[in-house]
Each structure stands twice: as C-alpha cells, then as structure tokens.
Amino acid sequence: MSQHQTATGERPASHLFYQSRMRRPLADRAEGIYIWDEHGRKVIDGSSGAMVVNIGHSNRNVLDAMKRQMDKATFAYRLHFENQPAEDLARRLSGYMPEGLDRVFFVSGGSEAVESCLKLARQWALATDQPERWKVISRFPSYHGSTLGALAVTGYDALKKPFLPMLRDMPHIKAPTAYLDRDNLSMEERGIRYADMLEEKILEEGAESVLAFIMEPIGGASTGALVAPDSYYPRIREICDKHGILLIHDEVMSGAGRTGRYLGGDHWNCRPDIVALSKGLGAGYCPLGAMIAHSRLVKPVLDRGGFAHGYTYAGNPLACAAGLTVLDEIERQDLLGNATRIGALLKAELEGLAERYPFIGDVRGKGLLLAAEFVSDRNTMAPLPKALEAHQRVVDIAYERGLIIYSRRTRGGVEGDHFLVCPPMITTEAQVGEIVTILDATLAQLAGELSLPVGR
Ligand code: PMP
C-alpha cells in the first residue's frame, strides 16, 4: 500500500478538487514517451500529458541544464534583476516568430499568457487613444484558459456559465468546422465564408468598439485539432487590418513545434499581432508561458509608462533555463522534422483505422496534433448518441490497454465525440506501431461494447 493511501484504498484527496471517474494511479517515473505508475505498470503517454511534454519525459540535457541553473539561482525578482536565461530565451524565441514579434513577456502558464495578450491589447488601445475599443471576439467552441479574463473569451458554455455574473462575456463567431458542412461550396469557399463571419460580427458589434480577435490557429481539445481551409487565414488577417483590430493567436497547444512548424500559424505564414505560448515551451519541465507581441504595439504602451501587468514568477530563471534547453533539443534532434514525418505516418495510420471502423467520420490535424471524430453516419456526420459516452469509454479502454489519449464531446458547438492522439515529438516509427496496435484493439473493443459497425 502506498503511503498516500488509507486502509480502504482511498487517498486523502487534499489537493484534488474534482470527482474522478476512476482512481488515478500515482505517477512514479517517466522517460521518453512512457510513464510508469506506482505499481510499475508502463503506459504510453499518447497525449504528452495535456499536449505539454513535446520533447518527451526526463530529457537528460534539460535536467542537467536545470541542475546547473539550480546551483546558481532559482529565483531573482524581475523588478530587481534581469537574468541570463530569460534574456537568452526571449532572444531565441523571437527568432522563431513572424517578423516584428520580438517583445517577449514571460508568464507561468497558458491562462496567464492569454490574460497578458488581452491586457496588452487593451493597453495598446488606450496608449493609441482608442479607449472605445475593448471587445475581443473569439470562436465557438474554443478554450483559452481558466482565469476570468481568459474564460470571458473562451467559447465553452459549461465552463463559463457559473461565472457569467463575474465576467464580461465576449462575442463569438462559429469555429470553421467546414468538414461538417453539407453544401455545394468548395473548401476554399467555405473558408472565406467562415472568415467573413468575423466581419459580420465586427459590424454587428460596431467596429470602433472591437479591440481584437483571438483564435487557436489549429484547434485544441475543444474542437479536436480543427484546421480551417487555407483561404480562412489570410482572409482573417485582411478583415482585422481593414477594421484596425488586433489578431491574437492562442498557440498554447498548437505552438512550440507540436504541429511540425514552431507555430501552428506558420503553416499559412500567418502574421498575428500577439501570440500566446505555453505547454510545450517548458515542455513539462517547469511551468512556463510567454506572450510575444509586435514591437509596434509595445512601443506606445512603454511610452505611456509601461505595461501595467505582471506576475511574481515571471521570467523565473529556472523555468527559462529549462525552456532554453527545450529549444536546443528541438533543434538538436530536429523535432520539427520528426513531428512532421511521424505525424504524417500516424495520421495515415489513423486514416487506415477509419477505413476499418466506419464510426470514425473524420481524421484531422497537423504534425502531432491529431484527432479522430466518431459519427453514427459518415454521410450526414451525425454524432453517436450521447448516452453511449463513446469519448469517455475510448479513453478508458485505451488506458486499460496501456495508452493515454485525450477526448472531448464537442465539435463546432454541437455534440460529437472526438479523441486526440498527440504523443511527444520524439516518437519513433516503431512507437507509432505500438500506439496504433493499442488503438486498433481499443476501437475493436469499443465497437463490440457499443454495437458499432466494423468494416473489413
Ligand atoms: N489556451 C489553449 C489553446 C489551451 O489549450 C490551454 C490549456 N489547455 C490554455 C489556453 C490554458 O493553459 P493553462 O491550462 O496552462 O492555463
């Protein structure tokens, strides 16, 4: 019996604030793409935690760099000192950004990064004498974080509703779920149509009152790795420019290389004004996030006295030393190349599974941000009945078989089950084989349990 358990097998749940469907084991050890629990059982971390551990667990070089930094200083307050790891990481990161995005503001997580984007945008409006601009349009569904500001732009009713009296709900437009549409338009035409919803919303709200538009360039868990048609991205930029509105890319999940480019938006050469990063930036070695903004926005804010915002742990030297070495590892091991190559292989395997399991209606994503969606009918893309709870069951079966995946039951604001397969960027071809073997058995078991159709 572990020291964390009582005689009845229950652990005193002093730091757990939610009901768990199943008893979670203690994580004991992690290496590469695997985690061992307290009983020595090994599972594949097929979701990199929550798409965090992009370079894999227990990377020796990152651990050594952290130890070296620990021996020097683990904390130096940002108002008293600069620190070398933060300076170096800021310089390195701006080299990965679209041109002009060279002002880096460190935080400790994704919600903090998004809050910082919203507050910088607002302070830019004030500093440029546009105080009437405050509305931030976002997409539905979407997830931008759990703090009240990030929640205000999040498109996820269940999470937001209890807090509505405490926050200012922001306008939403529909996420570009072009794959669900049954019309005669081409994908490119649909992309334009979805982007034009932004302009319609801007006009409805009053263009002079709109401050920014925030989106995940490649969707995360709320939409299941949603990729818009190519035409969507430049049209969004055009609309923002036309109305003087800032474009914020939430790259918390899609950034730091997961999709095979450093930023998800790089697949379309996007030019956002502000980017939010976290998750893969510290890659699970330390809490770390960043807001990266165009110097054009930051200058007027600095001229008016500076950014009135900040966190005690911002630019923590230990976290930044970890982040720096994570970047080194991405370069040294060519993990962008590997995410592209292994991602393509895994996607092809998922498409192969979709041929055998007709209840998979769509496989999508880029690099190693991949998802598969369940349907009851591929022609209509109708979802599976909610009562089947397929998204929960698939996760549980996969876990019992030794694979962690991630799932949700939302898509484009309507019901629908999808699961995400997002292993670390160090995953090898042989490990893709291990993942797919477990997924295959998982889907066969799911089909049996829920009486779903199976192909050849
Ligand atoms: N934005 C996106 C796109 C995310 O996926 C997440 C986390 N899932 C967040 C923001 C919030 O990040 P954190 O949980 O680190 O606060």
UniProtKB/TrEMBL annotation:
- Presence of keyword Disulfide bond: no
Q: Which GO terms describe its molecular function?
A: pyridoxal phosphate binding; transaminase activity
* Required co-factors: pyridoxal 5'-phosphate
Q: Which Pfam families match?
A: Aminotran_3
Q: Which GO BP terms apply?
A: L-arginine biosynthetic process
Keyword annotations from UniProtKB, A to Z: Amino-acid biosynthesis, Aminotransferase, Arginine biosynthesis, Pyridoxal phosphate, Transferase
The entry sums up its family as follows:
Belongs to the class-III pyridoxal-phosphate-dependent aminotransferase family.
PANTHER family referenced in this protein's UniProt entry, alphabetically: AMINOTRANSFERASE (PTHR43094), AMINOTRANSFERASE CLASS-III (PTHR43094:SF1)
Q: What is this protein called?
A: Adenosylmethionine-8-amino-7-oxononanoate aminotransferase
Organism, as annotated: Shinella granuli
